[in-house]
Every structure is written in C-alpha cells, then in structure tokens.
Amino acid sequence: MEDHAHLTKTRGRRRPPSPLPLPLATLLLALAPVAPGGAQEAARDVVPLLSLPDHRGPLAGGDPAIPAMEGDDEFGELLVIERYSNWQNWYFGWDTSAVWTDNVALSPADPEEDTYLLNVATLSYLPAITGNLFANAALRQEVLRYDENPDLDFEYMQADLALMYVPPASGGRLDFLKQDMALTAGYGYYRVSENDFDDDLLTDHLAHASVQKVLRPSVGHELTLGAIAEFSLDGDPLTSSRHEYRWYAGYTVDWTRRITTGLMYTGAYHDYRGSGRADWNRYLGGNLRITLLEGFSRGTAWRLALNIHANYSDNDSNEAELDYHSLSVGGGLGLHMNF
Predict the structure, then answer these.
(1) Which structural domain range is residue 46 located in?
(2) What is the value of pTM for the model shown?
(3) 263, 289 in Cβ contact below 8 A?
(4) Sign of the CA dihedral 197, 202, 205, 206?
C-alpha cells in the first residue's frame, strides 16, 4: 500500500456525481465516461450524480420511418409518437474507455504520460414515494488499469441513498424556477482499493445535499446548473478524507437523433480533515456521443453509443507539492438501459 503522502495526491474519487454524480445516474449522460487520467482524486469532482424523474428513460417512442402521406411537401416529415403509461425506475449503465493522460501521477513537476483502461458499471433505482418525493439509490463500480504504471491501478466503489424532492408547479410567476429542479439529501459511502480489490486505500462515509436546475433554451439544448456539499463523517485514513463544496454547469446539444455533444465545467473547494490542507480544483470536460444502436422493447429502453471525450483538470493547493495539471483524451463504448 502507498504511503499517506502519495495517497493524499492520488486518493479516491468521489463517488459523481453526479451528480456524477451520485445520488445517482447523471443527467449529463453524454459526459458520464469523462474521467481524468490517474486522478483518483480529481475524478471525484467530475460527474454530478443526480437524476430527475422525467430523465429516467424515454416516455415516448416511435418509428421515424413512417409511410409518405399527403401534406408532407407542405409540413415536412412527421414523427409518430406512442405514449407509454409507465416510466422506468431502474437504470443500468456500463462504459469502457481507453484513455491517454499527460500526468499519470498528478505530479506538480516532470509529469509522466501513460494510458489506462477504465471500466464503469452503474446501477440505480428511482422510485416515487409520494407526490413529488422520490427515493434515490445507486451503486457504482469503477476499475482502472494502467499500461506503464500498474502500481497505480485501483478500484473505486460508491454507494448512495438519498431523498429527492421535485418542487411542484403552483401556477405562479415563479414556476419557471421550479421546473426541472431537484433537491436531494442523503448518505454516501465510497471505497478505494488496489491489488484486485484486496487492500483499502481509502474509505469514507458521507452526508451530502445538492440542488440542480435544468434549463432548455431551445429544442435539443440543455443547460444544467447545480451545487453539491459533501461532509466526511468517518474517513480512513483521516488525513485523506475531506469536506467538499462543488458547483457545476453543463451544456448538451442533440444535433441529430444520434449525435450529441456536451461541455461541462466544475469548480470545487476541498477542506481536508486531520490536516491543514485546502485545495481549489477546477475541471473542464467535453464529450461527443454517437449512438450506434438503440431500441425499446417490453418496457426496456437501451442505447449502445460510441463516446469520445477530453478533459482538463487543475488543482491549486495551499501545499505547493500537491498542485497539478492534468489533460486526458480517450474514447470507448457505453451501454445504457432504463427499465
């Protein structure tokens, strides 16, 4: 196991989270596979893990290849929509990516390049409790394997349980603020391990609260804004656990039915327990998603997509030896299902 000085630099990811992440699977699905190279620490700030009920899966489906009919020349092609009476409580996602990074050890000087394979599996459940109150539960497992630095290989597991409240519309002037907003509060646990899940590098129990708002300026465009506060309750080792305050903004565009791009910025303040360390962390990520296959059958909606992503993270610590910059570029496949 690595000593505490090195562990503090490469310590475990958040959870995500959204979100990602999580209280759960992320609204910014296009950005889900974006993880900084070598950054067990920085990746904890990437995905705001939060999901709104109306984003749990397609509530409508249809066949765009309908027969030609009278009026097409005047009105253009039409999409026949079939409404379904239920929505999907469950979500499963699996992503695999090959990633290059220019700073595998998050070093402030003489950075070293490397490539790694990242596999991520997420399972979440979002049932309605009553009215506008929902339960939000998720389990996420990540596995990173490096090419030239296998001593940095690690696994990251996160579990979350939260309550989510979606403010209802009241017919007043402020309804536009409540629309597509969610408030969450809950409990999280995460574990960072090495040597094929055998040795713990870091474990922690968290209390977290978040707020997220989605704006849709036009068809196919989404702006997501949010803030998350996490409080470490019982970290081991204590010197590597931290309280975290994070804010984020993401913008996604559906250019066509199968092509989506996303851009996301995250800023965070890390207040480490058991030491005087304090960091300001910034992250900028972009993603291109190309849907290869998709379908809807017997209440299950699924999509297989190609993801290409790039991200840059910057850490400014009051301990100069823990400053770093990291650039990562990668791509892979993702399978996402709602059922």
Answers:
(1) 4-60+84-338
(2) 0.77
(3) no
(4) negative
Written as one string, the DSSP assignment of 55-78 is GSS-SEE--S-PPP-TTHHHH---
| Inter-residue contact 92 to 122 (CB < 8 Å) | yes
Nearest Cα to Cα of residue 168 among 160, 179, 159, 158: 179
Q: Note whether residue 243 is domain-resident.
A: yes
- Domain harbouring 283, CATH code: 2.40.160.40
The CA distance from 233 to 243, in Å, is: 9
Q: Which positions ≥6 away from 314 have C-beta within 8 Å?
A: 281, 282, 283, 324, 325, 326
pLDDT at 173: 77
What is the residue type of 231? F
CB 283 within 8 A of CB 36: yes
Report how far apart the first and last C-alpha atoms of the chain are (Å, whole number): 40
Specify the long-range contacts of residues 255-260, CB closer than 8 Å, at least 24 apart.
Answer: 255/220, 257/64, 257/291, 258/290, 258/291, 258/292, 259/288, 259/289, 259/290, 259/291, 260/30, 260/288, 260/289, 260/291
Residue-wise pLDDT tens digits, 41-58: 433 433 334 444 444 333
**Residue 4: predicted pLDDT:** 31
pLDDT in tens, 273-329: 988 999 999 999 999 999 999 998 888 999 999 999 999 999 999 999 999 999 999
Residue 206 lies in a domain: yes
How many domains are there within the chain? 1
32 falls within a domain: yes
Q: Are 267 and 282 in contact (CB under 8 A)?
A: yes
67 found inside a domain: no
pLDDT for position 190: 92
Q: In this predicted structure, what is the pLDDT of residue 69?
A: 53
Helices (H), 170-210: 175-178
Paired tokens of 297: 């059958």
Evaluated on CA atoms 203, 24, 287, 217, the torsion sign reads: negative
CA distances from residue 16 to 73, 178, 321 in whole angstroms, order as listed: 47, 24, 26
Going from the C-alpha of 56 to that of each of 89, 154, 252, the distances in angstroms are 7, 30, 17
152 close to 146: Cβ distance less than 8 angstroms: yes
